Amino acid sequence: MNQKEKDIFFTDRLMYWHRVDNKRDMPWKGEHDPYRIWISEIILQQTRVEQGTGYYHRFIKAFPTVEKLAKAADDKVFKLWEGLGYYTRCRNLIRAARLIHTEMENVFPASYECILALPGVGPYTAAAISSFAFNLPHAVVDGNVFRVLSRFFGITEPIDTASGKKNFSDLANRLIDKKRPGSFNQAIMDLGAVICKPRLPSCDQCPLKIHCTAYLKDRIAALPVKGKKPERIERYFYYLVIRYNDKVYVRKRKGQDVWKDLYEFVLFEENRPVSMSRLKKLTFIPDKTGLATCRVTGISETHIQQLTHQTITARFIELRSNSPVSIPGYRAVKPSALLKLPFPKLITHYFKSIG
DNA sequence: AAGTCGGGGTT
DNA sequence: AACCCAGACTT
Fold it and tell me: Does any strand B atom come closer than 7 Å to the Cβ of A313?
């Protein structure tokens, strides 16, 4: 079997499987509104379908059109994104919606290049929207596609290099069904999610197995090849939950660190754990300005959050003040307002723990 | 090219 | 505990 025949086998078998045997269903399947497809694709970046589905429904209900999203307050949008992670996606979603609102008369761009130019939209998302909404022949390349193609064609080149990405993209675009690019993209991702899974793939049910290189050579577990593996660093957060009357002090996180645009309490970060005795006296805080009128009323258990590149261990030190406290960058908010602000999972877990 | 950005499910 | 998920952006 030569290369061309193998290409044709791949596409034809994949499309037949999709038409006849693919039972995977998702809320946005068959959707052609580019706005809704865009929302779903951004939500699903590095996110499992099961995890993103609820967010998708809530988002579309709150913001049924790009104009509604463009006109919404930042914190209201972030509140809907709360808990989903990768919060830059939310920031870019807002930016793009406002671009479409103010510069494109609320009409979603209809070409691959213009879609790709939107903030938060990369090659994958541009191809997905192009093919699903506008039936344009651009092949998606996501984690599923890397896996399916590397295994079927026995490609050992790493997928996380510029060259590797280009080669996989070129291959996918060579294979794509030009008549039904949207269906092809859906099919290959579904096959990767349902059959050609990362571990313990269901090769016995695979429509491609008779010509799958990895299956025939028993190389399934070795593909795809990835290069880098991140090192995880340890961080220790000490949050001062300072109350004066019924208000508590918070700020919005800025800079380039994790949880940008989410809220938090008064933070002191250490390189190593701080002992309980020091916590009770707050002796680890270099500048105690403004805390003179505070007394410690409680110290929480440690709350641990595992992120991809770091492990954050946090404790919440609850304080009461008998006078207003002035802390640069922080403001006091009522409990009712607090509930409307977006917080990282670490802090919402703390909320749950204290009721 | 390498590093960074979350949170959760699977094995 | 390691790996991965409908990736994109910054440095």
Answer: no
Q: Report the nearest residue to nucleotide C9, CA vs C1'.
A: A120
Q: How far is the CA of A304 from the C1' of C4 (A)?
A: 21
Asked whether residue A346's C-beta has any atom of DNA/RNA strand B within 7 A, the reply is: yes
| Backbone phi, psi, residue A190, to 5° | -65, -40
Low-confidence ranges of chain A (pLDDT < 70): 230
Q: Which residues of A are catalytic?
A: 41
Which tens digits make up the pLDDT trace of A42-97? Answer: 999 999 999 999 999 999 999 999 999 999 999 999 999 999 999 999 999 999 99
Distance in angstroms (rounded) separating the CA atoms of residues A103 and A280: 55
H/E stretch holding A89 reads helix A88-103
Nucleotide with C1' nearest the A27 CA: C6
Model pTM above 0.70: yes
Residue nearest to nucleotide B10 (CA to C1'): A199
Q: What are phi and psi of A28, to 5 degrees?
A: -100, 10
Cβ of residue A84 lies below 7 Å from strand B: yes
Residues 6+ apart with CB under 8 A from A154: A213, A214, A217, A219, A223
Nucleotides of B under 7 A from a protein CB: 1-11
Question: What are residue A243's phi and psi, to 5 degrees?
Answer: -110, 135
Backbone dihedral region of A30: left (phi > 0), alpha (psi from -120 to 50 degrees) or beta? left
